[in-house]
Amino acid sequence: MRTVGVEEELLLVDPETGEPRALSAAVLARAARYEVAEEEPVFQKELHNQMVEFATHPQSEMGELGADIVRIRAEAAQHAREAGCAVAALATSPLAVRPSVSIGQRYRWMADQYRIATREQIVCGCHVHVSVASDEEGVAVIDRLRPWLSVLTALSANSPFWQGRETGYSSYRSRVWLRWPSAGPTELFGSAERYHRRVADMLATGTILDEKMVYFDARLSARWPTVEVRVADVCLHAHTAVLVATLARALVETAARDWEAGKEPADHSVSLLRLADWRAARSGLTGDLVDPLTMRNAPAETVVRSLLEYVEDALTDSGDLERARESCAGLLLNGNGSQMQREVFERTGSLREVVTTCVRQTQT
User: Fold this and answer.
1) Which CATH number fits domain 4-361: 3.30.70.980, 3.30.590.20, 3.40.50.2300, 1.10.10.60?
2) How does residue 37 score in pLDDT terms, banded at 50, 70 and 90?
3) In angstroms, rounded to a whole number, what is the distance separating the alpha carbons of residues 142 and 152?
4) This protein's superkingdom (predicted)?
């Protein structure tokens, strides 16, 4: 069974005011006291000092992955408390923030190259790594994932507010993220050789610093034998992150099986895929999405059902089908992180209360 690992970015906020706090160095210093020297650090610094990132270990069982996410979120909350702040699984800050770029040659290069776009990238995502047998299989998977990734954006949407304002989007993080020149959906590659040639051509322009800055919606990991799916907002609740990881693995498995069976990928243009991404970011689960099967508008519930049907065999074989169905039904009934944030604001009229509520919800 394919293994899955999750990377989550969390926002550091003042526990009283809800405003972002540039305390990542203090949080990471406290986390380092608990790290085992021979092992890969769980927590890492991010582009901005108001953020911290963690990575789970690869897991083949989704219950274990969920337990890892819950445990590490709790550890992050403990380290943050010791540093005088709190962690919130928010994909953007509801309150205004003055960006503070982290120290380091790489981040200085990005700040100088991209200017205001770098300062605005205080956005928190959820990246899912799914194991693949080879680069050739990985690129075949990437080619076949493309139409379905917007549905993961809609399910995970958790960023309706930006700099103290209602954006009208469910996932405004995804719109900010597209300000990077290498971000977004990709055309069909057809082979690993063509994928790597495209990456080399991008690097040769001097516009991006290295392979890690190839911010495709789904890409080959530069470090691990995985396909990395990068379209999701950081999810407010750990169980939603598990759902996104479950569906990402099922999509990878289904795409690999289609490739082995000689089934060609859908030849949708990048223009259409960008429209589907925009619709998912705008609507979340509260309006129409673009159905990957027809590339026409359809209610969110219909599109989510299409996704579940597309990956049903893979979910059945991994033992995840019923849990995935129940989780999707729960999100459609009760709302995702974006809907929850809006409900709190409508009830209280306070963005501070939105943040403090999300701090508590991050631990559930």
Assistant:
1) 3.30.590.20
2) low
3) 15
4) Bacteria
